[in-house]
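Milestone M4 deliverable, item 7.
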Amino acid sequence: MPVLEVTNLKKSYVAPDGERTPILDLPQFSIDAGRQVALRGASGSGKTTFLNLVAGVLRADEGRVVLAGLDLTVLSEAERDRMRARNVGYVFQTFNLLQGYTALENVLLGMMFGKGLDRAAAEALLERVGLHDRMHYRPRQLSVGQQQRVAVARALANDPGLVLADEPTGNLDVHHANAALDLMCEACAENGAALLLVSHDTAILERFDDVRELAELNRVGAETA
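Output delivered:
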């Protein structure tokens, strides 16, 4: 069964002068539960906008985004926030870790709006990503690769059905990029979560059996993501 179904999805941005710029026009997109999919998209192709629509961060102008059986496009912002906390893990390119908090606290904060605080589970996640001895380090005390691992642990904190990854290896060297990708794929497989990763990196995309082209799916030739 699909964990995500997108139908006739449209999104435009409105400039201060009122001019409307279409960004996305996707007739159809879906991911089955447990499936790992890579979406190729050049800079400015609308891939980040697409992920934000799927996550409920943005609201579509038209169409449907059905996640875990619920249509996000008819939910209020607060309802979308709750849905995202319970059902979506998001790994950002820049990690988006809170600098004043430890690795453990960052994962615990990710749980607050989902299944609730579970310190033992948070510690287990950090042990699983190889940070058992770095739980009480703040992001600035961690290497880039270690920060990525915290971001992955936080994304998995609420046992989401779908994990989104926006150019998650863009700030990493080849070694750390491969390690981070291994971690995400393995963790999603173990948790039964679907993975949707967007990238323009051919080396990363080649590791996926299911690679889709955003340019072929999107009927808008967007110049601005």
